[in-house]
């Protein structure tokens, strides 16, 4: 039966926005703006058995084909997560065959506003007269075991992640994975989730950062929704994947809440996987009873990859994105960028952008030039460290305060300014910047960048501070 979307009209902008937010983890924002957000909902079709066909209209033939070829799978997956129904996507042109769109999303596309946003527990979507709960802690479909390159440095963490996804809550509960930033912890968490879901469809898996847990909890306290919050994390998931757990350290209310959540989950044989930037013992300010629990199961680490693994990762990414990277270029890049896989990916993206703009092939020379402009030299003042030091000195706080979970204004304002300057001077991706500020979510960084940019216009003393710090750099 084909029904127009009268009932859902009002819900659609919000759903579509959530869908775009999920997609934001997969594609650059420009891609989303250009190709995805311009899609209009035309119709939905209930296929029964909790399946749904979503008809969308693109602005022209070219963009319909492009979306179909490049993004269909990810859009379907994101829609499925947001609506709770298995979605199949059909893309046509506005006037081509599928009828004119009955509804265009009027909302401006806004990036995830980050911390402190409204709690999104138990979103319910009305599709016809069915109600479907949605999971607002979805797993990212792009990170799988298949595209994780295994080498000596990550072999153990990889094997333990595979073991847990084959037999959840059996031997290793919790699984605790730690490493410095950019070495694949988040990737492994999602890979566990994806494996579980594809092996046993219907497994309720939550992926979330510890920061999200904390923010959601604070919000629930403010809005008197603690019982819903508790029910959500203690009862509604089979597996919880929680990223950057170091973030809860020193926040006693969050630690307390997480302690009970952990006990309930563990007691009812549900799998918990956590990551952190350091081993449980070294997480400063973490309550002892939590530390012991973190060590109950299996603790495994990831070390910086060896050059062979770095080359293999680079090649696998290049192949996936259909980029031809000659061997000498791969070796050159991998020998330069040693300690962070995300940065390795970053240069690859830059190289490709450069190549496609100039129509030239990727060569060693091009790689050298690109690298020079994208990697701050060792001696440069514009490193994350030096910016954090300068900003904290200026505000008479410590670099540690910038990375701490505390949200008091005394720290949060300098932190936002520091993020802004790091972005400005190093051009690092927002994900990496978040990692350098105590494992914060990329949406928090996006929020900080927007906020400071705005304040530069509107708030004279922020502008003065930023200018003074830039002079010091
Ligand atoms: P972390 O959570 O440890 O900071 P991420 O999991 O976010 O790091 O990894 C950073 C980027 O590097 C991701 O895009 C991830 O896919 C990639 N990456 C890291 N390790 C590997 C690996 N062994 N194989 C393939 N990609 C990897
Ligand atoms: Mg991570």
Description of the molecule:
It is built from 20 helices and eleven strands. It has 473 residues and is α/β, with parallel strands linked by helices. Helix 5 packs parallel to helix 6 (185-199) and helix 12 (327-336) runs parallel beside helix 14 (364-374). The chain is globular, with a radius of gyration of 23 Å. The termini are far apart.
The low-pLDDT segments are 1-7, 97-133
Strand order of the largest sheet: 8-9-10-7-11
Helix segment count? 20
**Ligands and ions found:** adenosine-5'-diphosphate, magnesium ion
Radius of gyration over all CA atoms, rounded: 23 Å
Describe the largest sheet: 5 strands, parallel
Q: Label the overall shape.
A: globular
The overall strand count is: 11
Query: Mean pLDDT, as a whole number?
Result: 84
Q: What structural class do helix, strand and pairing data support?
A: alpha/beta
Give the CA-CA distance, first to last residue.
64 Å
Strand content: 5-15%
List keywords for this structure.
473 residues, alpha/beta, four-stranded mixed β-sheet, 51% helix, binds adenosine-5'-diphosphate, binds magnesium ion
SSE layout:
Blueprint (H helix, E strand, L loop, with lengths): L1 E2 L8 H12 L5 H8 L3 E9 L2 E8 L2 H10 L1 H12 L2 E8 L30 E4 L2 E4 L21 H12 L8 E4 L6 H15 L5 E5 H13 L3 H10 L3 E5 L8 H16 L3 E6 L11 H7 L3 E4 L5 H14 L6 H10 L4 H18 L5 H11 L9 H11 L4 H5 L5 H18 L3 H7 L5 H17 L1 H13 L1
Parallel strand pairs: 3-4, 7-10, 7-11, 8-9, 9-10
Antiparallel strand pairs: 1-2, 2-3, 5-6
